[in-house]
Design goal:
Keywords: DNA-binding, Transcription, Transcription regulation. The chain is α/β, with parallel strands linked by helices. It has 9 helices and 14 strands. Strands 4-3-5-14-6 form a 5-stranded mixed sheet, covered by helices on one side. Strands 11-8-12-7-13 form a 5-stranded mixed sheet. The chain is globular. The mean pLDDT is 89.
């Protein structure tokens, strides 16, 4: 099993770009992860990585070995999946990712219930508002709010997700309330969700004439959607958020809806997973559980009931 563990460490180090990140992903210390890589290189008699003080990149032979090692690990995973179907209970690790807001408010709270129902499982959850690569990052299930574009993945829709523009009353008193979409382009501070290599930023509003794309701008941007909500509550600008994410603030009056007749285009709250993962009972059970419980939590938060 130590050789297989070394293979797993090696593939994750290649995928995540550092020994520290690869080890952390497998719950290993950097020292242990580094030892596994050195053992693998000694066993193979080749150098798998080019190392500098600032970077770690696979050598040419390391790239070739990665492609074959990945196939080996996937074959083992497939074999374990077949055997697990004869087991009375699902077992093993499920790697999950979700955006920060929906992760904190919906997905994370329902995870313990699943583990209590299936105590032989483990959930390793990562939350980020950045775009993730499910296959490259070695993830099993990725929750999302938006419109998925990767047709190689299986999607389960949880709910339609209305979006809303909103701002604090103090902000609107100082800057005025936009009356038409074009008002957002002049004299208003739009709070933007941005991160490295994010696409060109724009808001798309639903109008009687059809979708209206606006290249908005503002003095503040962040890669954490909850930071944007905090700035909006503090009167710093107008934010574009899923309605459920700010529903409590809208009900209390801390935030006020802006341009209700031309709201942002609705999106989807759902989850993605590789097709082959659905053969794994624990993944299938987790997805079914998350869809059912996630929809119930989504509706409770959105309606306040």
């Amino acid at each position: 099993m130590s050789y297989l563990e070394s293979l797993r460490v090696f593939t994750r180090v290649v995928e995540l770009g550092s020994i520290t990140s690869g080890g952390r992903d497998l719950r290993l210390t950097p020292a242990v992860a580094s030892k596994r890589i050195k053992e693998l290189e000694k066993h193979l008699g080749v150098r798998l990585f080019n190392r500098t003080t600032r970077s770690l990149t696979p050598t040419e032979v390391g790239q070739l070995f990665y492609a074959e090692a990945k196939k080996v690990l996937e074959s083992i995973e497939d074999a374990e999946t077949v055997v697990s179907q004869f087991s009375a209970a699902p077992r093993g690790v499920i790697r999950v990712t979700a955006p920060l807001g929906v992760g904190r408010r919906i997905i994370a709270p329902l995870v313990p219930g699943f583990v209590e129902d299936y105590p032989a499982t483990e959930i390793r959850m990562r939350m980020s508002d950045r775009k993730v690569d499910i296959l490259a990052d070695g993830l099993d299930v990725a929750f999302f709010i938006g419109t998925p574009h990767d047709s190689t993945l299986k999607m389960r829709k949880i709910a339609d997700c209305a979006r809303v523009l909103c701002a604090a009353p103090e902000y609107l008193e100082r800057h005025g309330t936009p009356q038409v979409p074009e008002d957002l382009l002049t004299g208003h501070n739009c709070l933007l969700l941005r991160y490295p290599r994010s696409p060109e930023y724009f808001w798309t509003l639903s109008t009687p004439e059809g979708p209206r794309k606006l290249e908005v701008s503002g003095k503040y941007d962040a890669d954490d959607s909850d930071v944007l909500t905090g700035w909006a509550l503090d009167g710093r600008g107008i934010v574009n958020k899923p309605r459920f994410d700010v529903a409590a603030h809208l009900r209390s009056g801390a935030l006020v809806e802006v341009l209700p007749d031309t709201p942002p285009e609705a999106t989807i709250f759902g989850c993605l997973y590789p097709h082959r993962k659905l053969q794994d009972p624990k993944i299938r059970l987790f997805v079914d559980y998350a869809v059912k419980q996630g929809l119930a939590a989504f509706r409770r938060i959105e309606t306040g009931n």
